[in-house]
Amino acid sequence: MFTSSATLTRRFSALKSDADFWSLRHVLETHTGYQVRKQVAQPPRFSEDQGAMLTARVKGIEAYCATSDLTQAGLQAALDRAGALARALAQRALVDTSQAPVPTEQMDDVMPGYERVLAGPAEWFELLVAESVKVPSDERLVNSQVSLEVTCTEQIYLNSAGACLRRAQRFIYPALSVTASDGQDSQTRSLGGANFGQQGGAEIVERIGLVGAAPRVADEALQLLLAPNTPSGPRELLLLPDQMALQIHESIGHPLELDRILGDERNYAGTSFICQEDFGTYQYGSPLLDVTFDPSIPEELASYRHDDDGTPAQREYLIRQGILQRPLGGALSQLRSGLPGVANSRACSWNRAPIDRMANLNIEPGEQSLAQLIGGIEHGILMSTNRSWSIDDARNKFQFGCEWGRLIENGELKGVVKNPNYRGISANFWRNLSAVGDASTVEVLGTPFCGKGEPNQVVRVGHASPACVFKNIDVFGGAA
Amino acid sequence: MDARDHFTALLANLGPLLKADEGFTLSYRAETSDFVRFNQARVRQAGQVQQVFVTLTLFLGDRHAEFELAMSGVIGEDHLRLHQALEHLRDVVPTLAPDPYLRLNREPWQSEVVQMAAGPDTAAVVEQIIQVGSGLDLVGIYANGPQYRGFASSWGAFGWHAASSFSFDWSLFHDNGQAVKSTYAGQRWDNEAFIRRMAFAYEQLDYLGRPARTLAPGDYRAYLAPAAVEEILGMLSWGFSAQALATGASPLQRLFGGSVPLSPLLSIDERVAGGLAPAFTSEGPRQALRLLDKGQPAERLVSSRSAAEYGLTANGAGSGEYPLALAIAGGELDEGDVLAHLGTGLYIGNLWYTNYSDRPAGRLTGMTRFATFWVEDGKLQAPVNTMRFDDSVFSFFGPYLEALTREPELLLPTGTYGSRQTGSTAVPGALLGRFTLTL
Fold first, then answer.
1. Is A48 helix (H, G, I), strand (E, B) or coil?
2. Nearest beta carbon to residue B43 from set A82, A89, A179
3. Do residues B215 and A397 lie in contact, with contact meaning Cβ atoms separated by under 8 Å?
4. Is residue B186 part of a domain?
5. Which positions ≥6 away from A209 have C-beta within 8 Å?
6. Beta pairing partners, B168
7. pLDDT value at position A480?
8. Which of residues 149-188 of A touch B (CB under 8 A)?
9. At A267, which helix (H) or strand (E)?
């Protein structure tokens, strides 16, 4: 762990610059991918990526140069390039960073169990093949995949004020999916994948219940193939956590990103229906809605002690009893806006600069069990496992689709329906939150695929949520 | 070190390390890119990224595995990293099960394209952008620099692609929140050409300043400008994959299954010439392919693995079977006649955030975004507040496709996930007799 730390520290100390402040952020990321498709082991993929971003601040103007050349000369050249660029932009920059906070802490942030060695390729393939062969033999089951992705990231942040922040994390993504098709229609049912990832080790594979899941997942894919389409019309909507994660992400997370509100993302990811003036007073949801930025849940994907600019991270309420409290804005955005924020200045790797991102964004549990949630619904539908998402550039008008739907009538679960879709408007949707599941319904989920930024970046985000019920939602199915 | 020299030095070092029963392929991608973000016509964030990655695949009979690793650009250090990756693969590959779908292209093919030019000076371009954008609410990103792609195998294949380019992708915002999006890309920055594009965008801002119209959900006549057609095409691109078609994952499965055609006005090709993408993939030289012929299904994108699994013939598609340079053939509609032929309806400049409502049925949803106008009697009337569409491609690109504009527009990529993209598309605008808005 941190094997290049001593060398990097020595080389950083030897760097020369006339900048007012400079920093180095080194990332070493290794990745392993195993997949078995239709009982055939695919060739495994390994990767190792490392490099460093050098940032120079000159008279309040900051610029960067990212390089994979980690020699003394390479780092010096990158710092010189960053400094020259900062000077060249002197009269042209939007933001004066001279008052931005300068981290000085020295701290290690190592995920519990990080140094525990995981099984090797042969053992993982044995597990994945064993699960793959459990998919029943049925000519309608045209595809199945069982996979495991493992990513280890070590980051070292150093700056000219003496900070040294080191972080080591391992992320595990188990996944299983089965597709049933009759030639005209096809339906996929899945477990894990883009909806699920956690920090930790092999225990995560057990936690998600991958082993032994294939027959159930395959059966559900076949049920969907035979099921009627979701009927159209307003219903009460019960979303399970693996759809709540997407709902939180798109219609709470992105609109609360402060750089969007400040206009930085208008050319690409978009803006927000929320204004700076809304914080402290805006009724975002019903009084049942409590939303936290929580970097302290060990297994959640974006738990960390400092963000990538070196700001200490702590739990904060973003929405409390439905009222908007604070945005998702890092130290620089807080400086620009005068608003409070959180430690969410993050980069996807060494070759991209930190910007405001979601991290762990969670809904706090309520008081009803899943049975009570279902029992309280007269005319509704349960939806589970996101498969489609689309929302406008202000993060208001959305349409989401799930893999799995079940009608609910008079407090009881009824038949399975396929192509469950729903649409709404963020500003109204959360005010229709009518019931929140208790802790027994909470799942800690997340995705490694949150895209944003120019140049583009994909980061890991975590979402923990209970099951939730929404009133009077427009639901509909697919084509005939 | 020059990128090509770096690649060939890695190859020269790797070759002698191989044992008699081993084979390898080595892919190379590198770039030195300046990135400058703008907001309010000022620089929000600026920097440079220098990166080099190689992917080494080791073959031992019918077993294989791959290792991607970052290179430092310092040749001694990189020899060491590559050697360590080779040793790691040597530990793993013998433990793997044989791959029944390995049909490696062992031809000693050669391909080399170099399109390098002295790129524009980033600081000078930034100055010009800020001058021209002065007083406007301009937001966007400028990217500039050389990109390299290489491929070689121990069986004698060698591909090299080097190209320098810039792209400026920006929006102008009106005070009312409406915006128009533009791009300018190429090899040599021409300030006059940039000013003309900016002037065209500025003209549209005038229309965008009018009070916006809010439409009710329903069916409308619509014109999709090329950028909007490109967004739709992006969703269909996945559909030509042989594996996607065989596994129920394609939005075009009903088309290729023969149950629903698209409009006979529509023909789609995967091109090799005329785009920015390399002429090769890790599967070998790419082939020009007609994927859709007058609304009828034609070729699929077939990788060597799909060829082996489904009994097809490989046609140079990469392992992901994703097209790199799609082109929709132009039609009969002159661009100057678009509004007259539209009559009353929607002029849609861009679509955004498209996804599937029902993938097997080819049903898509997405949002209008940037420069979308209400048109009456062939005249622009007012900008339209953001609307959602939800409609089947077999409808709006089926019986309701009335015309395509004559000259397809070449749209160069601005995407930068991981690295700057090299693909491109050439698409005309599309006049639709019916397009369904839902929210």
1. strand
2. A89
3. no
4. no
5. A191
6. B142, B184
7. 59
8. 179-181, 183-186, 188
9. none
**How far off is chain B from A209, nearest CA to CA, in Å?**
25
Q: Would you say residue B101 has pLDDT above 80?
A: yes
The average pLDDT across B351-367 equals: 97
Distance from C-alpha of B165 to C-alpha of B117, rounded to nearest angstrom: 8
Whether residues B322 and B261 fall in one domain = yes
Residue B373 shares a structural domain with residue B253: yes
Minimum mean pLDDT range among A191-195, A430-434, B236-240: A191-195
Q: What is the DSSP string of B191-250?
A: HHHHHHHHHHHHHHHHHHTSPPBPPPSEEEEEEE-HHHHHHHHHHHHGGGBHHHHHTT--
Share in percent of chain B as helix, strand, coil (round to 5) = 25, 40, 35
Judged against a pLDDT cut of 90, whether residue B225 lies above it is answered with yes
For residue B351, give the chain A residue with the closest CA.
Answer: A392
Q: Is pLDDT of A371 > 70?
A: yes
DSSP one-letter code for A320: E
User: For the residues A137-163, what does the mean pLDDT come to?
Assistant: 98
Residue in the structure block whose two tokens are 């702590």: A314
The number of distinct structural domains making up chain B is 2
pLDDT at A147 over 70: yes
**Which residues make beta-bridge pairs with B48?**
A65, B34
Q: Calculate the CA B333 to chain-centre distance.
A: 25
Tell me if B235 is assigned to some domain: yes
What is the CATH topology of the domain spanning A5-226?
PmbA/TldD fold (3.30.2290)
Single-letter residue type at B161? H
Q: Are residues B267 and B412 in the same domain?
A: yes
Residues B226 and B348 in one domain: yes
Pairing of β A164-181 and β A106-110: parallel
Print the domain residue range for B92. 3-173
Query: Is position B153 within any domain?
Result: yes
B160/B233 same-domain check? no
Cβ contact B126–A92 (<8 Å): yes
Instruction: Report yes or no: B204 and B227 within 8 Å, Cβ to Cβ.
Output: no
Q: Does A125 touch chain B (CB under 8 A)?
A: yes
Q: Do both B169 and B251 map to the same domain?
A: no
Q: Which residue of B has its CA nearest to A142?
A: B247
State whether residue A434 is helix, strand or coil.
Answer: strand
Render pLDDT for B304-332 as a digit per residue (tens, 0 to 9).
999 999 999 999 999 999 999 999 999 99
The whole-number average pLDDT for the span A163-182 is 98
B178 assigned to some structural domain: no
The CATH number of the domain holding residue B29 is 3.30.2290.10
Helix (H) or strand (E) holding A299: none
ipTM: 0.96
User: How is chain A split into domains, by residue range?
Assistant: 5-226, 233-476
- Does residue B263 share a domain with residue B155? no
Whether B43 sits inside 8 A of A93 (CB atoms) is: yes
What Å distances lie between residue A439 and A229, A252, A363, B202, B430, CA to CA?
32, 21, 11, 54, 51
Last-in-domain residue among B150, B173, B196: B173
Three-state SS for B39-107 is ECCEEEEEEEEEEEEEEEEEEECCEEEEEEEEECCCHHHHHHHHHHHHHHHHHHHHHCCCCCCCCCCCC
Q: Which of B140, B173, B206 is the last residue of a domain?
A: B173
Question: How far is A173 from chain B, CA to nearest CA, in Å?
Answer: 19
Residues B79 and B147 occupy one common structural domain = yes
pLDDT at B102: 96
A94, A185, A457: residue with CB nearest B360: A185
Residue B273 has a pLDDT of 82
Separation of alpha carbons A389 and A402, rounded Å: 9
User: From B62, which residue of chain A is nearest by alpha-carbon distance?
Assistant: A43
Averaged pLDDT for residues B151-156? 97
Average pLDDT, chain A: 97
Query: Does position A90 have pLDDT exceeding 90, yes or no?
Result: no
Band the pLDDT of B119: cuts 50, 70, 90.
confident
Q: Is the pLDDT of residue B258 over 90?
A: yes
